[in-house]
Design goal:
The structure is a single chain. With about 325 residues, this protein is of the alpha/beta class. It has two domains: about 200 residues, FAD/NAD(P)-binding domain, CATH 3.50.50.60; about 120 residues, FAD/NAD(P)-binding domain (3-Layer(bba) Sandwich), CATH 3.50.50.60. It is built from seven helices and 22 strands. The strands form six sheets. Strands 1, 2, 5, 6, 7, 8 and 21 form a seven-stranded mixed β-sheet that branches. It starts with a strand and ends in a 15-residue tail after the last helix. The structure holds flavin-adenine dinucleotide. Flavin-adenine dinucleotide binds next to α1, α2, β9 and α7.
Length: about 325
């Protein structure tokens, strides 16, 4: 089994930039990501949203940012492993680490950088027996591409931020939007809720989805029920988007003996956790006045890499070196 200098757990924006910086320090690098794709929360929740708070980039979609980060990360050809959740940690007698994934795969590494965000992301599934048949077809939990919804009748179920935002976002391109929510009130930014209420969308509250029907794995009609009057309506649909929340879970990493504060891992100014050789960057790293923004993680990643480099080769420079020196 190849021994890597550093294994980055998590292929979100911070894991990707961290991998690039590892290459700058000539470290053999591996990224392990649970999802089948890179980009973390950006790819999962908001690939088509405009990001406007990264210095030097006035506006960029999430998808384009991740495309560029991936290109940058691949500069030094790190090993990238997808579809694996790291669950086990073992410290070997020589001080190196053996990581185990949920499927039993093993990864040998000198140091670890945790770029796990708050953990692995899973959307809350629609709690109806027939749902599975339509998942991956026209029953969605996230918006991968707006094009899928263009000119279609879209039913959105949910009443939180995501449901309200997607309803507003899809209104100009969809043929019609119906929003179904089990409560009368929506939650989210007042401005967005007003936009939705004043739009052409049909709003059904307090309603829940009660049954699905369709042909050949294509969902074509949704049965909804009014929770007060028990009135039933059948709504003909082209696409259904369910935003019933999501879970984020660090899983067994919580049992590794790391010190936590505010559900995140405590680090010092070197991004060192309480376990020597394990560092953290991005959303999972906790310290005073922490900013949960991509721009913040872009500085934490290189700090963690420099610390990991100094951990492996104590005589090496801990301070960052300008990128122009490396090309
Ligand atoms: C709706 C929304 C909008 C946002 N808008 C902005 C914005 O406009 N600007 C901004 O700066 N920030 C924004 N943020 C915050 C930003 O997305 C996060 O700060 C950023 O994604 C953190 O990156 P990360 O790489 O640390 O973690 P994440 O993006 O969460 O990536 C972590 C990755 O680690 C993987 N992982 C976790 N555990 C394991 C494991 N055990 N094994 C393998 N893989 C694992 C996860 O699957 C995930 O892909 C927004 C967040 C949300 C939810």
């Amino acid at each position: 089994m190849k021994l890597f200098d550093v294994t980055i757990i998590g292929g979100g924006p911070i894991g990707l930039f961290t991998a690039f910086y590892c290459g700058m320090r000539e470290m053999e690098t591996k990224i392990i990501e649970f999802l089948p794709y890179l980009g973390g929360k950006v790819s999962y929740f908001y690939p088509e949203k405009m990001i406007r708070d990264i210095g030097g980039i006035p506006a960029i979609t999430g998808e384009e940012l991740i495309r560029q980060l991936e290109e940058q990360a691949r500069t030094f050809e790190p090993t990238i492993v997808l579809n694996e959740q790291v669950v086990g940690l073992e410290r070997l007698t020589d001080g190196t680490f053996l990581l185990t994934s949920h499927n039993g795969e093993k990864h040998h590494t000198r140091t670890i950088i945790l770029a796990t965000g708050f953990g692995t992301l899973k959307s809350a599934r629609l709690d109806l027996e027939e749902a599975e048949k339509y998942e991956g077809r026209n029953l969605h939990y996230t918006v991968e591409t707006l094009k899928n919804f263009s000119g279609k009748h879209v039913l959105i179920s949910g009443g939180g931020n995501s449901a309200v935002d997607w309803a507003n976002e899809l209104l100009p391109i969809a043929k019609h939007i119906t929003v179904v929510h089990r409560r009368k009130e929506f939650s989210g930014l007042e401005r967005n809720i007003s936009n939705l209420r004043n739009s052409t969308a049909t709003i059904l509250t307090p309603f829940v989805m009660e049954g699905l029907s369709g042909e050949d794995d294509q969902l074509s009609s949704v049965r909804v029920k009014n929770l007060e009057t028990e009135e039933i309506q059948n709504i003909v649909v082209d696409e259904v988007l369910v935003n019933h929340g999501f879970s984020i879970d660090l899983g067994p990493i919580k049992e590794w003996g790391l010190e936590f504060e505010n559900s995140s891992i405590k680090v010092d100014s070197f991004m060192q956790t309480n376990i020597p050789g394990i560092f953290a960057a991005g959303d999972i790293a906790s310290y005073q006045n922490k900013l949960h923004l991509i721009a913040g993680g872009f500085s934490e990643g290189p700090t963690a890499v420099n610390s990991a480099k100094a951990y492996i080769e104590p005589e090496k420079e801990l301070k960052p070196i300008f990128s122009t020196n490396h090309f």
